[in-house]
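quick one, 166 residues, struct below
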Amino acid sequence: MGLLTIRGVPLLLGDNVSSDIILQARYSLLSDLKEMAKHVLEDLGSEIAQKIQNCSIIVAGKNFGCGTGREASAVALKAAGVKVVLARSFSRIFFRNAINHGIAAIEWDRPDDLLKEGESLEISIMEGIVRVDGQSFQIKKLPPMVMNILNAGGLIEYARKKLGRR
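---
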């Protein structure tokens, strides 16, 4: 997978985006990941649900992924193409679920007025830097072990690689 640098226009979300808002419980048992991805963030309206389908970056506020600890929320985000979530803070269970499924969950206490809708950014995960409109900002660096899991595509792929199985 190789999560070194990600560029794109992020989906901007606020505080306390719960795992139930990310994916409603009734979709959490779907086995078709493409179908599951269609329902990501649909409670926030059809416009947001459409935007997430073409978005690899989410920038959010505090307590992202709070609520139930359903793994399906992280699975659905990955199925929708999300590679990175930058947030002021994460629910601990969502943080682990995201990493385990190959989504970089990174804390960033950004200035409130920094990002505007439709503005592009670049994230250098290894350096721990976000670049926005010519400015660079520090983000929390992920430990080497977490980077190894992300670069493998998630915890299961990491374990397979370590065990010499494909």
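The chain has one domain: 5-163.
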